[in-house]
Amino acid sequence: MSPKISQEKIDEIKSKVSMLDVVGEDVVLRKVGRNFSGLCPFHSERSPSFTVNPEKGLYHCYGCKAGGDMITYLVNARGMTFTEALLELSERGGVKFSNEELGRLKLPSSPIQKKSKTAFRLNRFASKYFRETLKKNLEAKKYLEHRKISEKLQEEFYVGLSLDEWSGLAEFLENAKAPEDLAFELGLLHRSKKNDRNARGFDAFRNRIMFPILDASGKVLGFGGRILPGKSQTNENAPKYLNSQESFLFQKSRSLFGLFQAKKHIREQDTAIVVEGFFDVLGLASVEVSNAVATCGTALTSEHLKLLSRFSSRIILLYDGDRAGRDATESAMKTALKAGIILESAYFPDGVDPFDLAVSENGAEKINQLISQSLPEVDRKLNEIAKEGHGGDEAKSKAIKAGIDLITLIEDPVGRMVRTRSFAEKLGIEIRVFQQLLNSKNRDKTDTFRANSTGNGKSVARSNSTMPRGKSTVAGKQLSQSEVTLLRVLFSDFLEELLSQAVSYFPGDFNFEDLFESKLLKELTRHVKKTGFGSGQATARLEAALGWTSEFAELSGVPELANLIREYSIDEDVVLTKDQAKKYLGRALGEYWARFSQKVRAELANAEFGQDQAIQDALMRDYLDVQRRMKECKDFYAG
Q1: How far does Cα 426 stand from its chain's mean position?
Q2: Does residue 23 form part of some domain?
Q3: How far is it, in rounded angstroms, from Cα 142 to Cα 140?
Q4: Which CATH number fits the domain that encloses residue 278?
Q5: What is the mean pLDDT of residues 217-246?
Q6: In whole angstroms, what is the distance from residue 322 CA to residue 503 CA?
Q7: 626 with 523, same domain?
Q8: Last residue of a domain, one of 204, 227, 250
Q9: 466 and 553 in contact (C-beta within 8 Å)?
Q10: What CA–CA distance (Å, rounded) separates 617 from 608?
Q11: Residue 570 near residue 51, CB atoms below 8 Å
Q12: Region class of 366: left (phi > 0), else alpha (psi between -120 and 50), else beta
């Protein structure tokens, strides 16, 4: 929590932004009851253990125990400072800071942070220049109209124009006093003489339709440019397509054109379509196939696949049907298999331009039909290999080896088993024999892995931080089952109703925190009572508890306690019914009365030892009263 900005302001910012939108930029979220679930962005996993509760604005991972609110998420997932996260969310939610608040905020001060922020602003500035230049250029607008790129589509993808001049952008940046060295580093400008820092800069992009390449949050990473047809004064013999040079912002192996515009549609349809060119993305978008992205002049990489997998579990490649397109698809398939992803594919007919097909008559129908014909590329390839294996013994031998090489790349054991059986049947060989060959190949891979993983002679064990439910630990001490369930009661919707019903069964000086044995839980409950009781809302108690854990995060055991609170508040499986809450509260009260009874008995024994009859009589009355009330309490909660 920031002491510089009021909690009311922070709450206002968080109320204006959807937790699902923030996390959904990194994680494919699917609705599970009241929550949303997906693969954790903080550790590698195959089965979803990451949960988001949009109502409470919290996330929690049951695997690595990461958790918090949307500010915590931006800090941990994207490396922002608290201030940066707050500014990011305020911009999203349209919440403005006063001049006084801005003055109190400590803005990013590290050189790297400042440079990145300035670089993104510079790219955005250049993007606006290209966009405004296009609006004023009749020839370029006619070209786009001829290519059937509507004004709406141009606006959506920020399409722009670089003039057929050497210094259009260079002069614009100079007049705006933009940092020239950074413009060179980002590849917006080139020097007239290499390695001469005093040499005058000239435009890197000239006479091109310009496409800003954005990251998932809409920041401009770099640019791609398609040369305009006709004679050029500055671009003779230049490549048809040109991308920004590699920089600390832009890396082709990690960037996808159209991702910012497509991410919502990819998430909604749980399908991402990958095409080869920028115009292909625009063509598909023009017929409302809006979940397409394109690589930036490079093959599909594991980084691309990892990025897309955050938004969708299904990825389809739509490449040209020529030899180059099929080879590129096969290469992408192998990359995907190594990443545990089954890639689907469909091919455009030979000689058919994807963009032209999309904007042709009935283009939407043709594109959607093509997409509906997509198949897992590994199945398509295994079918091809099996067919080639029927040309004699040598052909079959080669097919078996090729099939084994491909099947061993499949990570999913069920998918591997199904394809093993299918491939063996198509080749006409016994499944048992083929499985033995496959197992032999797998053993070779395992031996190689072990040799590479244990160079120091020690085995490498993978840690598992998942804690069994009901055996939670705080400050190195395991909580009792009673305390674990009582913590759930504390955040139950029925707590105050149950307490009001049970008040006659409490000792005279009873406090709810006395039910806990852990000192940390006692302190937490005292704080929750001050700020969260009386509202009748479990959410208010939850916010009070998390506020306390945030304030005292440096104390031993508090971080573990915060994780436990988030876990029990966000997991639908541990949301208590009224009967369950009553049962657990009754159990805790019974244990409390038992401890109280033992205390009275100990005092009675001391009185007997001291032979003070008056004290003995008083303590005996207390003891019998305790026993009676224990029975009443037990009977009430048993009913």
Answers
A1: 40
A2: yes
A3: 5
A4: 3.40.1360.10
A5: 90
A6: 79
A7: yes
A8: 250
A9: no
A10: 10
A11: yes
A12: alpha
506: in domain = yes
- Cα dihedral 280→131→26→298 (10° resolution): 40
- The token pair that represents 350 in the structure block: 């030979």
Q: How many CB atoms lie within 10 A of CB 268?
A: 12
- Cα 486 from chain centroid (whole Å): 32
How much is the pLDDT for 465? 32
* Average pLDDT, rounded, for the chain: 82
Q: Are residues 389 and 345 in the same domain?
A: no
- Whether 456 shows a pLDDT value over 60: the answer reads no
Cα(first)–Cα(last) distance of the chain, in Å? Answer: 45
Strands 256-257 and 208-214, bridge-based pairing: unpaired
pLDDT digits (tens, 9 = 90+) for 52-87: 999 889 999 988 888 999 999 998 887 777 888 888
Contact between 168 and 175 (Cβ < 8 Å): no
Residues 32 and 64 in one domain: yes
Show the domain range for 96. 7-104
Q: Would the pLDDT of 462 be above 60?
A: no
Amino acid at 631: K
The first and second tokens of residue 591, run together, are 């244990």
Round to whole Å and give the CA distance between 594 and 372.
Answer: 68
Where would I find the beta strands (DSSP E) of 423-480? 473-474, 477-478
Beta carbons of 431 and 421 less than 8 angstroms apart: yes
Look at residue 517 and tell me whether its pLDDT is greater than 50.
yes
How much is the pLDDT for 459?
35
Q: How far apart are CA 305 and CA 500, in angstroms?
A: 55
Helix (H, G, I), strand (E, B) or coil at 272: strand
Structure tokens at 88: 């990011």
**Tens digits of residue pLDDT in 418-452:** 899 999 999 998 888 888 888 777 655 545 544 54
**What is the structure's pLDDT at 519?**
80
Residues 377 and 329: beta-carbon distance below 8 Å:
yes
Give yes or no: residues 547 and 618 share one domain: yes
At residue 450's C-alpha, the angle toward residues 448 and 452, to 5°, is 70
Residues across the chain: 639
Lowest mean pLDDT among 14-23, 194-203, 467-476: 467-476
Residue where one domain finishes, among candidates 104, 125, 140: 104
**Rounded mean pLDDT of 286-295?**
94
What's the one-letter identity of residue 192?
Answer: S
Q: Rg for the chain (alpha carbons), in Å?
A: 33
Do residues 243 and 297 lie in contact, with contact meaning Cβ atoms separated by under 8 Å? Answer: yes
**Are residues 77 and 130 part of one domain?**
no
